[in-house]
Design goal:
The chain has 9 helices and no strands. The chain is mostly helical and 290 residues long.
Length: 290
């Protein structure tokens, strides 16, 4: 039992680190499209970032996620797996008993709540670092006394300390409401389809799914999860990017209303990245297989 608990946390750690290395360039493009202005489409955003900032621009702000997302994924996937086992123990007297759908849903919601507590400051710093060289182009707003296009923060620690000093704990957890609305249903719509597809693909008589089944189930579940989570991810990104040069939004509802009124439903939906969940789920299942 104890070794299984440690395996879940270790697998989340490995998966989280892998997802950052693979997914950070796409995440940078996603953030720029969601929170920035003037790119038009994904290809133009890629070309603009490369032209202005070279390859390093796609990896801007990666050091902090690389150090922290591993812990984040470790805790989230560890909480999910161990909550499932606890519920199976309470219901059936056996932690290894196959979880019911309601158990998966409860464990997913627990993982979502935990992810917000850890992930909001991590995402805030990552997005601020990704956006701090982003020029703004919006009328009727008063920029802060900082020149757009030039770095505001010297690094992740300086960014965290600056936000904490100027905006307090509320600033560090800016966008938390939107992240709750993203992650609680988002993890439900990830873990439930993932569990279903793994069980469906795994041949009868096999105890654990094979690696190819894990990859397929993780990819499909990631698409389903991010397809529904993207609107709140856009809102979260805009709230967290807000404050580098501008203070545009009063809160989650105001951001939703302004985004919809100005751009409709399509903005920021062209790029989403289920890499984090897919990589972590793969590493978790592979450790179980081994």
């Amino acid at each position: 039992m104890g070794s299984l608990q440690l395996q879940d946390f270790a697998a989340g750690w490995v998966g989280g680190a892998a997802s950052v290395v693979v997914g950070h360039p796409l995440d940078t493009i996603k953030t720029r499209l969601q929170a920035g202005h003037g790119y038009g489409n994904t290809l133009n955003c890629v070309l603009t970032v490369y032209r202005n900032e070279s390859v390093a621009g796609f990896f801007r702000g990666m050091s902090f996620p690389l150090a922290s997302i591993a812990v984040y994924s470790s805790v989230v996937f560890g909480v999910f797996s161990n909550t499932q086992r606890l519920l199976s123990q309470l219901r059936h007297g056996d932690p290894a008993h196959a979880p019911a759908l309601t158990d998966v849903a409860v464990a997913s919601m627990m993982a979502g709540f935990v992810s917000v507590g850890i992930g909001t400051p991590v995402d805030l710093v990552k997005i601020r670092l990704q956006m701090q060289t982003q020029p703004y182009s919006k009328a009727n707003v008063n920029p802060k006394p900082t020149v757009p296009g030039f770095p505001v923060y010297r690094g992740p620690i300086h960014c965290f300390r600056t936000v904490l000093q100027k905006e307090g704990i509320a600033g560090i957890y800016r966008g938390m409401g939107a992240m709750l609305l993203r992650d609680v249903p988002g993890y439900c719509l990830y873990f439930i389809p993932y569990t279903f597809f793994c069980d469906w693909i795994t041949p009868d008589g096999c105890i654990s799914p094979n690696p190819s089944s894990v990859w397929l189930a993780g990819g499909v579940a990631g698409v389903i999860s991010w397809g529904t989570a993207t609107p709140m991810d856009v809102v979260k990104s805009r709230l967290q990017a807000d404050g580098v040069y501008l203070n545009k939004y009063k809160g989650t509802l105001d951001c939703i209303l302004q985004s919809y009124q100005n751009e409709g439903l399509k903005e920021g939906s062209s790029v989403s990245c289920p890499c984090r969940e897919t990589a972590a789920s793969v590493s978790t299942s592979l450790l179980r297989i081994s």
